[in-house]
């Protein structure tokens, strides 16, 4: 091996070693868990064959552990029976979880349901593995819910998800008490 080849080989070895060390340091660093979360998609069961889907991507950052009103993300749902139905998407404005139960609320930002844009809605999820349950504020309020519905308000999770579709995940909130 000539001198030039030795320098190139040594240089490559140093780069590989440095890269591996940097990679190990970055991936081995402990990652801080978010304070709370609700994620996943599931279909609701209806014997009439309704196509009802709920999807969540709601998070409370670790730095905001003491304030569930700083939650971020979106959630959406659709409900169709044949050609009739509608859909809506909401921006999260509150997320509270306790154990495997989450309550999320948000304001409707996009929808095809007349008069619904700008209303606040709340949804409750019980994470039971593949047998999750769900409830929503408009089950106990008129229409999609009043414009003055408070943040983080919903109903008990009375609906069952379609068998095999329940994949909601709730990250429990541990507020500083």
TrEMBL record:
<feature type="signal peptide">
    <location>
        <begin position="1"/>
        <end position="22"/>
    </location>
</feature>
<keyword id="KW-0732">Signal</keyword>
<protein>
    <recommendedName>
        <fullName>Repetin</fullName>
    </recommendedName>
</protein>
